[in-house]
Amino acid sequence: MEFMGKNLEDIVVELPFEDGTTVECGVYSYFEVNNKKYFALLPLKGEKELDFSQSYMLYEVEEDEEGNPIVLYIENDYEYAVAAQYFSRQLSKK
Question: Model's pTM, two decimal places?
Answer without folding.
Answer: 0.87
